[in-house]
Amino acid sequence: MIIKPELVRRIKDYFNLNIYETKVWLALLSKGIASAGEIAEISNVPRSRTYDVLESLEKRGFAIVKIGKPVKYISIKPTEIIEKMKTETLHEAHERVKSLVVLKDTNEYLELEQLHNAGIAPIKSSDITGSLKGRSNVISKLRDLIESSTKEVLICTSALDLEDKSRVLIPALEKLIKSNIKVKIALSGDAERVKRLNARFNLKAKHVEASARFFMADKKQALLMLTPETSEEEMGVWLNSEFFTESLHNLVEKTLRN
Questions:
Q1: Does residue 113 fall inside a structural domain?
Q2: pLDDT score recorded for residue 104
Q3: How do residues 71-113 score in pLDDT, each as one tens digit?
Q4: Residue 66, pLDDT score
Q5: Core-most of 61, 115, 203, 217, by most CB within 10 Å?
Q6: pLDDT band for position 1 (cuts 50, 70, 90)
């Protein structure tokens, strides 16, 4: 059996394997049960390396050793490997999150905060602007912007966008409301969808015709979206400008009152 180079390249990335591991694993899958010599012949991996690679794959759960002589290896179902990798990934992510939570209580974290505050202090607020690219970066900044607000949050976006980001936005907004921080929302798009969102999340969003998307906190910070909600990659600009944000806030307030 000839193993296609394109398949090797794709599988390598999916399963976090090197080239030799991928070739050997695909060769073993094609045979079901095979010796190192048979695998070397099919995979075109040097026989001297095939033993080490098979041992590595066994340790990672991609194969098991068949009892008996000569030594042969049995391939594991791809579905079993995927489920095992999912479990391991979730466990690693959980442990990583735990370590990051604990980090906030360490002296190292305090030093990081001190370094940041010392570096930001001399800079004019009007100079602090930044571009954001990619959904995860936009959502991360949006969460920080909302959670750091102490007086008021103003959101102007589409009903579709709010629904899409509801897993992040709604819990953050609920915390603000419980803390008696003002939350004002203007949503464009289908009016019936806006009503459904209000009912579903217990909001008081107002339907507007504006297609702009921006998020403001305390009339000081703003996240302005540069792409429509249907864009494949989100892009935005974060501004820490009290003059600009307050001016924009006042314009939106007039629209909401009309």
A1: no
A2: 81
A3: 899 988 888 888 888 888 888 888 888 888 888 888 888 888 8
A4: 85
A5: 217
A6: low
Q: Between β-strands 182-188 and 206-207, what pairing exists: parallel, antiparallel or unpaired?
A: parallel
Q: How far is CA 257 from CA 69, 190, 243, 253, in A?
A: 84, 20, 22, 6
- Reported as a pLDDT band with limits 50, 70 and 90, residue 125 is very low
Residue type, 236: G
The residue behind tokens 């001190």 is: 114
Q: Two tokens at 257?
A: 């009152």
Residue 192 in any domain: the answer is yes
> Do residue 63 and residue 141 come from a single domain?
no
pTM reported for the whole predicted model: 0.55
| CATH number where 20 lies | 1.10.10.10
Which residue did the predictor score with more confidence, 131 or 74? 74
Domain that holds residue 142: 126-257
Tokens matching residue 33: 């049960």
Q: Which residue has the tokens 């939106």?
A: 252
pLDDT above 70 (res 185): yes
Whether 177 and 202 have beta carbons less than 8 Å apart is answered as no
Higher-pLDDT residue of 90, 254: 90
Q: Is residue 119 part of a domain?
A: no
Please tell me the distance from the alpha carbon of residue 231 to that of residue 213, in angstroms, as a whole number: 13
Q: Which long-range contacts does 222-227 make (Cβ < 8 Å, 24+ apart)? A: 222/248, 223/132, 223/138, 223/141, 223/142, 223/145, 225/138, 225/157
C-alpha distance from residue 165 to each of 17, 117, 169, 216 (Å): 34, 30, 6, 16
Per the domain annotation, does 96 fall within a domain?
no
* Total tally of structural domains belonging to the chain: 2
